[in-house]
Design a protein that fits this description.
Order of helices and strands: HHEEHEHHEHEHEEHEHEH
Mean pLDDT: 92
Number of strands: 9
Radius of gyration: 20 Å
Strand content: 5-15%
CATH architecture of the largest domain: Alpha-Beta Barrel
CATH superfamily of the largest domain: Glycoside hydrolase/deacetylase
Shape: globular
Helix content: 40-55%
Distance between the termini: 27 Å
Number of helices: 10
CATH class of the largest domain: Alpha Beta
Bound molecules: zinc ion
Low-confidence stretches: none
Largest sheet: 6 strands, parallel
């Protein structure tokens, strides 16, 4: 946040020094480009630094965004249990308040609960600081006492200066990812295992989704679970699946 403020201030000083209206437009364009890099590229560090930044070959972390929801969470927990994999669930606060028993079950099975906003709607990124603070308070309340980590992953992987400020003041860590299923919230599940397996050799944090879309069919759910089964099965022979906590310790090392 400080970085972006300093950059904005620098541009204002440059604009004042130049005192030429033609350059004002170019300076604004430059500022706008930097702003967009910060919003759309989570790793940019324009507003805030995220972790982990290193990939460790042979080490994989499983992270599951969205949910919990009865349409997928119990099946996912069963599948993770089959392979004895531990995952971090970045849950939506509103879903957590609707299905508290699923939050409890996730924790009882040794997984970790983390934060992924309360409402998870696209316009969240336009919210000011106060709006974001409410998202955090409500999610925390919905997940208590099971949320133990101050880890956050923003919905749609979008960042804003206001969100960055709330993360910093609340002591939250922005959790990045290296491998994305590109499944559009489980809408595109065909060849999911193949897509994911192509990119696991360098290790890193995998992101996939823990909830089915509203118009899902039994076929699409079956296909997703089969793909995840193939992915997990291949993963156990290729990589060491570790907790996010452990991976962060490893990446903080020399
Ligand atoms: Zn999400």
């Amino acid at each position: 946040m400080k970085r972006f403020h300093l950059f904005s201030l620098l541009l204002i000083v440059v604009a004042a020094a130049i005192n030429n209206t033609t350059y004002y437009f170019l300076i604004f364009i430059l500022w706008f480009i930097i702003l967009n890099i910060g919003v759309f590229y989570l790793r940019s560090r324009v507003f805030i630094d995220g972790i982990p930044r290193k990939r460790i070959p042979g080490k994989i972390v499983l992270t599951i965004d969205d949910g919990p929801h009865p349409n997928l969470t119990p099946d996912l927990l069963q599948l993770l249990g089959k392979y004895h994999f531990q995952a971090t669930f970045f849950v939506i606060g509103r879903d957590a308040s609707e299905y508290p028993h699923l939050i409890k079950e996730i924790c009882d099975r040794g997984h970790t609960i983390a934060h992924h906003s309360y409402r998870h709607v696209p316009w969240l990124n336009f919210m000011l600081r106060r709006g974001w603070e409410q998202e955090f308070t409500k999610t925390h309340r919905a997940c208590e006492p099971y949320i133990k980590k101050k880890w956050f992953r923003p919905p749609y992987a979008l960042m804003s200066p206001h969100l960055a400020k709330v993360l910093q003041s609340g002591g939250y860590e922005l959790i990045l990812f290296d491998i994305r299923a590109l499944d559009f919230g489980n809408r595109r599940t065909e060849n999911l295992a193949k897509r994911l397996l192509k990119t696991v050799d360098k290790g890193g944090v995998v992101l996939f989704h823990g909830k089915m879309p509203e118009n899902y069919t039994e076929f699409s759910k079956k296909q997703l679970l089969e793909e995840l089964d193939i992915f997990f099965n291949a993963l156990q022979n290729k990589s060491d699946v570790v907790s996010l906590d452990h991976y962060l310790e490893l990446t903080n090392g020399p």
